[in-house]
Amino acid sequence: MKFSWPPGFNAWKKGLERYGYVLLVVAVGMVLLLWPQGGEEEKTAAQESVQEEFDLEAFEKKLADTISQIQGAGEAQVVLSLQSSSRQVLAQDKEQGSQGDSSTTTVTVGRGSGNQDVVPLQTVAPQFRGALVVCPGGDDPQVRLAVMEAVSAVTGLGSNHISVCKSAA
User: Fold this and answer.
1) Tens digits of per-residue pLDDT, 140-151?
2) Are strands 87-90 and 92-96 parallel, antiparallel or unpaired?
3) CATH number for region 54-86+125-169
C-alpha cells in the first residue's frame, strides 16, 4: 500500500519550497518578540535612581560617624539646617508660536502600559544654612579646626556657619 498525500497538499508544498526562508525568518522574529526580557528589574532600578531623595538624617549620621574618627574629637553629634533641599532640573521643550507667544512643556518618556516618566537633566544638591557639631574634644582648638575643615569640605559651608561645641559629658 502506497501513501498518497491529500490533493491540496501539493500547492502547500510548492509554497513552502518557494517561501521557506521567509517563513523561517518570520517564525524566528515571532519567537524573539514573545521571549521574556527581564526588563522589569531594569525599569524599577531606573525609577529608583530618578526618585532618590536626599536623606538629611542619614547624611547627619554619616557625617557624625566620620567626625568621630578625627583624633581627639570623640563621639560626635551633628545637626545640619537646610536652606533648600535637593531638587531635580527637568527637561523642558519650548515652542515659539507665529504670533510671538511661547509655550513650555515638560518632556516625558513613555515606559509602556501608559506610564509616563519625566526626563531629569540633573539633580541639584541641597544647600546648607548652618551646622552644629557637639563632641567631647570641642574645646581643643586643633580639634575644632579639623572638625570645621571636615564639615566645610563636605557641606560647602564657610567657617562662620559652623559651630563646634564641647559636649557636657
Assistant:
1) 999 999 999 999
2) unpaired
3) 3.30.300.30
